[in-house]
Protein 1
Amino acid sequence: MPRTLFEKVWDNHVVHWEEGKPALIYIDCHLVHEVTSPQAFEGLRLAGRRVRRPDLTFATIDHNVPTWSRLLPILDPTSKTQIETLEQNCKDFDVTLFGLDSPHQGIVHVIGPEMGLTQPGMTVVCGDSHTSTHGAFGALAFGIGTSEVEHVLATQCLIQSRPKSFLIELEGRFARGVTAKDVILYIIRTIGTDGATGHVIEYAGEMIRALSMEERMTVCNMSIEAGARAGMIAPDETTFAYLEGRPFAPAAFEEAVNYWKALPTDEGACFDRSIAIDVSSLAPQVSWGTNPAMVTDVTGEIPDPDSLEDENARKAARRALDYMGLEPGTAIEEIKLDRVFIGSCTNSRMEDLRAAATVIAGRKVASNVRAMVVPGSQQIKQQAEREGLDLIFREAGFDWRESGCSMCLGMNPDILEPGERCASTSNRNFEGRQGRGGRTHLVSPQMAAAAAIAGRFVDVRQWEN
Amino acid sequence: MKSFSKLDAIVATLDRVNVDTDQIIPKQFLKRIERTGFGQFLFYDWRYAEDGSLREDFELNHGRFDGAAVLLTRANFGCGSSREHAPWALLDYGFRVIIAPSFADIFYNNCFKNGMLPIRLSEQQVEELFERARSTDGYRLSIDLEKQTISDEQGAQFRFDIDPHRRESLLKGLDDIGLTLRQEDRINEYEARRIQFQ
């Protein structure tokens, strides 16, 4: 029977399954960070358990780290404790840690692919919802809670009910100035923040095939923002070319490629749901509210909550506008900004930084704006510096920082002040996400860069480089 | 894991859709390395003004919900971050049951790992419960997991669906890790045939 990519990966990982019950599935790669793991390691200790496969477990420190110089001390004692706890746990349980002094430190979802840990056909989990990023390689990758982190540490398995499947076919080529970020924001805007709950999305179609690996990661990264269990893209030559030569890529590469080539969805395979979207006329997207489905075109305006049919949606939109300090009917391009953040597991990779640098080269950040760039990893930071991008950013007036999650969630000192408005390349515009009272607008790196220069949102399609 | 079978308790309402885990427990409280003590920070930015005083416009601060152990809310509750600190905070505050038309997947799963019962009802049933909770001071619900029923003293009764495996685990308070470790032979056998490339 023809099977989908997801079904093939799922079937290959079933350790045990009985009809009518959830399956026991095997995990090939377990990524760990400092925030969602301490209680899991403590659970192992209390029960006298060990980490079953330290060789399949990799840790880094990303959520809590200050992005100022690594030579400066970590001032927040609770952050410091959490970081030291992970260091100790990795030592005690023999887990590889890409710590603060490692040249491979970075956002967990950036460094996994960067080192070749993430490979097609694998199961990848992490105590972090944006684990969906790794699905860009044709891996089944999803976020788990701390109890499940403990479960994987102890058993290398998880008890899971099989999710449903959802095909999103993307056709057409997007215009210059439009990006993978705009595509995924548009998808979430279309299907809603719970549009894919209980499903694994497969992104397919001509548009997806044309994307680079970094663009595919941006798309899969935000699958969780549509409620999806995971997002996946079939591996192809682009995937193989990206992986070849990376530190953890298989040495028997040809053999691996032959296996990977059999993973894409078979002709005639069935999905539980499917939609098709044409991106040819897609405009850059800007979020206006407090969830990632509250999004409109840069050429649009703030919607009127009263125009919404559903009462709950109306109330939510009113609340959102009140929180965001916005009036219905305001043009997006009239919205002035205080801060710009380029970074996060959604948009902090080389292509993101290059694209933003192209927009700002030779220009200055507007006087009303404070802007920062936080590369996704130490490797990216170094590569960007080799290419001179740091100079372009610095000369324009951007802060150039060390790698980490930073202002995507503001667990470190990088936060918005109450009322500050930020154009952010991150993934969540929830209330208080970037700092209490902070107002987040989700955009692409190009849009964020142009907004930093103009001091307000502008349609980057009209930008003259 | 803690078991759950029956509960009769006061119902608190939270009339908002898409309540994300950043609201349930904001990030500045994720730095603790324990599982306990998160209740004081539950819905922190909604519960407290910046000067630390209670916000009167937030439902849970209304005295009528004191002692509530059932939270009645709207669709897509628990969306966003996978942080298990969210169910830890709800549990520590006193909630054992959450009723909503839908939940985000990771949050839903995390609840069961902590002896909490998330119950999905139809939009219409949830609306009816909201009506009843609004019009009755100290509104209570009885939840029976064995029978899969929710009922109140005025005669309302709903049946709810739940995956039989989850129901069983919760009723018995089973330790998932202990159960999986008992399948070690199967895991060993899988590892022997597992696809991997050197």
Protein 2
Amino acid sequence: MPDSLPLLLTPRMEPITQSVLTEGALLRQLTDGLGSPLNVVLPEALDDNVEGFRAVYRHHRLRGQIYFAHKANRSSALLRHLAATDAGVDVASLGELQHALGSGFGPGRIMATGPKNREFLWLAARSGITVNADSLDELSELAALVAAGRLPRVRVMVRLAEFASRGVRMVSRRSRFGVPSGQLSEALDRVEKHADQLELTGVAYHLDTIGLAEKAIALESCLVALDECRRRDRAAWSIDIGGGFGVDYLADGQQWERYTSELAQAMLGRRAPLTWNEHGYGLRNEAGTLRGTLGLYPASRPDSGPGYLGRLLSATAPEQRRPLGTLLLDSMCDLDIEPGRALLDQCGLVLARVLEVREGADLLVRLDLNARDVSLEEHGVLMDPVVIPRDGNAVPETTEVYLLGNLCLESDLITRRKVVLPVRPRPGDLLAFVNTAGYFMDFSATRALHQPIGRKVALFRQGGSWSWCLDEHYWPVHESREAA
Amino acid sequence: MRYEDMTEAIGNTPLVRIDPAVHGLRNIDLYAKMELLNPFGSLKDRAAWQMARPLLAGAAERGDTVVELSSGNTAKALAMIAGMHGLRFKSVTNRMKVPEVKDLLLLLGAEIDELPGQAECLDPSDTEDPLSRMHRTLTSNGSGYVHTDQYFNERNVEAHQHGTGPEIVKDLDGRAPDYFVACVGTAGSSTGVARALRQHDPDVRVIGLVAAKSDFIPGIRTIDEVHEVGLFEPGVYDAIETITADEAIDGLLTLVRRCGTPAGPTGGGAFHGAVRHLRTVDAGLTERRTAVFIVCDRVESYLSYLRERRPALFGRPPRRNDTRGLDEAEIAAAPTADVEEARRWPGLVVDLRSPYAFQALHIDGSINIVDELFAELLHGGLPFSRRQPVLLVCPVGEKSARYAALLTRMGHPSVRSLAGGIIAWRDAGARLVRD
């Protein structure tokens, strides 16, 4: 039976986000002065997120480093603020490495991952960071650079892939990264061959899945790999399990369940469409049966971030039948992680101005930003923006709208979903896309059509109220400035 | 009764009246169709045999493998049938959540492929799920697979239309029941039985039960998942109602404890859903009615499922000499030895870590008793002489402190816990060996 209540997808907003949204005058002033779209980052929200992961480490008595996956956001403010905590940073390009070094991270707290060109390897070797090697040839290329420059030994980890499960076969997606775990001894041979240039500190994996069982197999395989290192008298003590801990985006899981149920009904033609041109987000109607798969991020994930890590560490290793966290500890192994979006939970929002509200068969709201400025749709995350009225007075009126972008392009919808807003937007209002610091803020933004890329500002609390500065001007020293 | 093989024992299950004192309905006779008495253990035996039978000819000669997307009873039945006909069986699933069922399938010689979880970094342009891809491989010619395709195979429905349904009518002396309540899994049984019953009486009311969306009841689909089933036709059901795992377990307990029926959660859910629905009509009735629900399978395969959701049902008396009986003060007072003292330890060194980690690196001369095993030993009493000094070793000195406290309480005079554990030992540069 079609559900007639409004299909809200209310974002989960922690007190810091709520507090920023009450600053309507400040947010309007900022977008007036700096233009729409405007990216707002909240560096101090990082502290709770780092602490959340640390609490899981403490609970399992584990040591090791939390490396922030820099690719999730280019912000300087976030990186510099993080440099003032005990976390590290995972860099995946030459530019990111330069940024990390310039933001206050010492080489001991930087890990290079992903595909690397020669320049990236050179700076990594020069600066003495840890290199998480993606292939055997990368190990050799790095060793050659170290030898040529007569540099000290570089710490390396070997990223493994294609883990075999014994007994029940676990099918995993193919990955373009890493050394097949079956070639571990070749990788160790390669490290030994370059023993004067490379120092093996451990092994790594990163799986693009939310499936715990696959990760359990990979983690146990890494323990076996570490044992092989020890058998060869290579004192390697770390396992890097990458990221993929996820974020819980919605305040109410019931809303997500209702929305996805109704979307299925809409695709089967049993209720009015919920999407632009009856887009199915991967679902399709074949003779009355629903086929395909829902291509959406599971926006309601109560067990995400630190909670997900905790669950992985408590999961029983398929072969040794002890909790993975216990096995890590038994083996005196340090655990390194590389969370991206999970560390940026509640760390920022994107503001956009409403340009036009067009009546018709559907109410169309045209915004001064495009789908790449806040790439929720590209990443399959559905959550409602928050209306910040132009004059501070909002008249509650549940309104269904489509959100259009500022590109001269049919496909430029901020989301193809019909969005339900509790307040009818008017031209001049702002829409706040909250909790978008992780991957949705600057990951895909382009200057297509000479449209500007949003400026980025950092908001921070000073003397009991919110202050701001341009992202590039933020250094985590404002408190001491205040004290002086 | 004499049969040529077990498949002949499929079907003709009894229809058993549920004691009104149990269900409390005054005007309705409630009957259970005892599908748990099928030879391979469930209702799915019927569909599995009906679907597999026409595909068997020549399959053994070709060396084909029977394959089905199933994580439960259909897989179990097909594995048995495949085995009887010299074929291999493979189950492809992302829903294998009940460990006993998985173990049983492996015991039957089945091969299991588990599908991956959703990608964390989503690629929305990739709308082909692993299941669709798998499906394509299976249906291509000469694949070596015999695919029974339970969610789309009309023979799944026929098994019940010509078997389960008519049996119910026969046992009710040629009348169809007024109400039929069934859990919806593949929709095969509910659709097939409904068709047969309505041939006798078009007014039969059919109630379909689905699981709440975030819930998990093995064998029942959620309200969304039923739409992915080719056999599911909403028109079959007069009402579709939701049951929770909690309600299914309540129903299971009633059947198990009061009705002499060792039903699994699906049967429990059907019973609970039936009574809940019928209670609303019972009061207004002036003449007698009959209702039938299906008990799909047996309880034994779901013990871990039940243990996880109702741990209180499995409460056991506390065992003696248990570290959980220690208080914080006792643990804090546990005698410890630092690395220096440990290096000169005169007695036994017991390493409580996993055998694997122990073999990789350990303190020279130590012995390994993994903590779980050590805990078991201590329930029985002191496993070594009081005159033997014992140093306990664990990763960070936490578990070993608990056991040192417990051994002290048990009267061992010279037990110590290595302070900071083997990690402190390593960090102090003390020697670790590998034999």
Protein 3
Amino acid sequence: MTACRHTAIPAILLLAAAAAIPAGPSELRFCLRSDPRSFDPLNVADESSETVRYLTHGFLVRMNRRTLKLEPSLAESWRVSSDGRGVRFRLRSGVKFSDGAPFTSADVARTISRATDPALKPQAGDALRRDEGAPRITVHNAQELTVAFAAPIAGLDYLFDELPILSAHSPLKDGAGLGPFVLAEYRAGSHLNLTRNPYYWARDAKGAALPYFDRVRIDIQQNREIEMARFRRGELHFISALDVENFDRLAAVSAASARDGGLSLESEMLWFNQAASARLPVHKLAWFRSTAFRRAISDSIRRDDIVRLVYKGRAAPGYGPFSPAARPWFNASLKAAPYDPQGALQRLAAEGFRLQSGVLRDSGGNAVEFSLITNSGNRNRARMASLIEQDLARIGVKIVIVPLEMPSLLERITRTLQYDACLLGLVGVDLDPNDQMNMWLSSSATHQWNPRQATPETAWEAAIDRLMKAQAVEGNLPKRIRLIHEMQRIVREQAPMIYLAHPHALLAVSPQLANAEPAAFRPRVLWNVERLAPIHQPEVARVP
Amino acid sequence: MTAARKLGCAGLGLLYAAGLLADLIAPGGYAAQDRDHPSARPTPAHWLGTDELGRDRLARLVHGTRVSLFLAPAAAAIATALAAVAGFASAVVARRAGQVLTLAFDVLLSLPLLFLLITLRAALPLQVPPWTSLLITFTLLGLLGWPSSARIVRAAVLSSRDSNYALQARAAGLVHSRLFAVHLLPHLRPVLAAQFLLLIPVFILGEANLGILGLGVVEPLPSWGSLLAELHNLDTLPSEPWRTAPALALLSAVLCFHLAGSRHGESPA
């Protein structure tokens, strides 16, 4: 009787979920946390805009988020030149934009010209724009073209996975796309409706037109609890980012729906403000600029406890700028920073710090105390901050945790620089190290601990600058990997960023969604959106 | 005193005693982390179990009681005092000036309080100890939370000023200052007392809302607000009912304040 009841309850839940997704025109449903900030495909900087662009626009190549290999998309084949300076694409024939306009090499040429225009500087062309000048584009015929750069570009073909192809001649201009769906309706703060692109080129193994879904309904929903409740009622097909608590709750009631995509590219870290322009007391700036001080703080934090208590084991301790998932870039010879408070105190003693009556003091007698800002409302970060506070108390360091609204926090870390230390996360979108270029170059505004340096202020920052610039033009993959590994070694040694954890990609995927292959990389569930299908559709060709 | 008021006072007495004796009830402290026993069920060592970081829930509750139940009345006292001055002034000044003051109350009422608090908090220096931050939060609640009460005070003063007994006093030749001091102010006392008692739970809940947004009391200091924020996971409440203790404490306090402030059933003096 008990067994019957146990099997009957999930069956009833499944039936209820199936009933909630109506027959007839099939509709893929999910939520975004915020409105898209831009519908300009070349100027997309937020996840919501990126999602809409991914659904409505086409790309020459696509990285399979599971195998991390490039696959043909609008380009049926391509060849990177041996010197790494150019790539020749052969495009699919018979492809049309969503308004019926034909797709040719001229569209690709115009898109690349716009993306690399130094006057416009669109975000989508960041990786393609070079100091040496715009690329030379040679259109051989309607289906073939070559893009050549003045200097080699590492991982050149992968850069075209991020560049949406726009029409050169369509009357709808950027509104015409090559993606599987077309934007039909947008109500700010409420929802977006997308309909099937009738001209979408891709077909399945049986020759049936893709995508399988007829429509996409995206609701704007900031509240994670409501999103979760809707998913459990069968109103949504997936949630692409869950926190650990919601993941565990879901796993308890529907193990099949809770998917752990493994380690993500994301990192949680803290850093100290080392900017000379920040109005910090002299002694504090001296602490924060001391490698020994930063290393001592790093070695006094129990990362295992962060993984165990904050992420319930669904994370890896922080190793450095690259998550272990970022292969081949992750330097596997680096181990997670050890928990060694005694070693930390010895390191500090060598710098003149002394532990007196449980309080750490510097050589000038100043008690070591600083504020740690983080964004308010983030439970994981609040817990991490509490653990760090207790860990550092063991070496006599006192910290004051200050949660701030995100705009206030961003104001402090980017403009006023009025803070001591910051605890925040980095969302890695792209696997390629060039994605982190802005953070590591000392001249960059997002070189967080000491931004906008006219020349590198330290030898190790100069070394990181050289390594990052060298890897960006290195065509030989093993050599490039060595450069990135060396950069990680320096970061570990100098600890400008104290990496704490790399969380798992936790998702919810409805059993009603066929062909879902959720990945740790964004867009986690949607990367193969044209093959996603409602489970009740009998003619769906399942991906083997 | 009615039975309801006695019950309310007794309940408040118990809650305040728990806050005052927090260090005796939970000598381990609210911040101590027993990392080997996170999210533990109630045991003789931890009567309400432990939170996700292994901190004793009872210790956090009683220390949170101290924070919320002592600072909320202080903030309510500030707000009531400001409401008394502003409400009284708007009623006794010239008619035009009174209208301007009333308009000012309305403007202040229409300002989004939460937004103001967030902005002011962000403008404060970072390196302030948790208790100072807490005092600032409640002071801001007190300084910003008086306009609705001021309107009520104004209405009460106007009503008294135009009453028959005031008319009679004026006809008997009583000067204005004496009329207000001897006749009107005593009539305001119950109104002010009621406003004070009503504002206490409002500020407790206000701090709770700020806590839920992560803007009230900062870690590791507990308050009812920060403890209530842990109740977002409603699914586990049936199997872990002890986690509802902060909500029950808040509910009890609000109820007790209302009972203690209620004059229903009392015969007039």
Protein 4
Amino acid sequence: MSEVNSYIKALMDHDLLLCSIMVKGEISNFKLHYSGHMYMTLKDEKSTIRAVMFKSAGLRLKFRPENGMKIIAEGRISVFERDGQYQLYIESMQPDGVGALHIAFEQLKKKLEAEGIFDAAKKKALPPYPQKIGVVTSPTGAAVRDIITILGRRFPCAEVLLYPVLVQGEQACYQIAEGIKYFNDNKMVDVIIVGRGGGSIEELWAFNEEVVARSIYNSCIPIVSAVGHETDFTIADFAADVRAPTPSAAAELVVPSRHELIVRINNLQDRLLNAFYNGIESRRQVLKLLVQSPAFKSPVDRIAQNRLLLDQITKDLYKNVLLNVQKKKDTFSAICSKLDILSPLGVIRRGYAIAKGSNKRIVMSVDDVSPGDPMEVQVSDGVIHCIVNRCVKGVKGG
Amino acid sequence: MNFEEAIKELEQIVEKLEQGELTLEQSLDMFQRGVALSNLCAKMLDEAEQKVSILIKNKDGTVVKQAFTGNQEDCMDGF
């Protein structure tokens, strides 16, 4: 049996026609094996043929084969000896009718849409006055010149940082993604413009690659996409926070217009002046009203009146003080004459004497002195020094 | 101070002055600050010279910033 199969295989492998054929059909029973190989049945109205596309060939596909898809496959017919089955070994595959890129575009768009990569809710707002603007594009194209010119004309105070990348070819998508990541990793800019000038769908293709869409989605910095012309829509446009129809339009979107800003500044200046002068004027009015009000005038009157009152009171006070002083003087001389009457000197003048002991104390009792003590007796015209002769109690002197 | 900070502060000052709840001294200070800010904003638009740099990756992977003149055909080296 194996010899038969082997023989048939050899026959087929030597057939020049079967070595390289192109078939047209519809995919069914499509199976993507975990090994990466793809198994399917191709059919037309009348018959079917088994087909396999190995991983190495499959990696080159821009689109994912699906059941019901009409394709043109290129490859060779050979025998799988174990099963005794002949099948088509596909080397390359093209969608029949619409282009492969078109299908790839639709497929990726559907996939990313389902993942929420294009969600409107996830879109970030652009900063109103970016200080630094990142541009990921080719440094040589017209796009970069347009962007720089327009940014400079509208809002020259924003710094422009250009991350140069290839915008077409195999490496372009990786470089673009890397540029977006670079700006994010270094937190260098407030907004990013990603794009290129117009071109064919093949030339714009980098912007339809998944890696670019994902890097845009993952960016923390708002991104404006600007790919090709107004009619070109790329996956990057759907993933971006804002899609600009052209690179020039992107530059206009990310910065305010100089003219609008000047109008705005002038407006603020006017409001500033008005508010300030209104403040001063309203205070002036308040002051004027206050000055004219009777409440403000009456205190002045009251001061004048009080001054008169004060003068009067001062005069009265002065008078009263003088009067009082005279009164006190009179009282004083009355007291003085009374004192004169009561004074012991007055008594002495009337014939009395004051006896003092040696200690200068007035002698009030016979007990205050002893015989032999010196004594002083003060009379009206002098002092008599004498010695106590005898002390007799109970006898009135005289 | 960048343009955004300047114009935002100017807006706040105008609003505060318009509310009219400041003392005379405060409103004079605010007014002077506002005039300075609006002059600064206008100056930034009139006199700012656009700065454009290109990020060049060296062979060792480090990235350097250079002034971009628009005719650097060789700037793709290393990319």
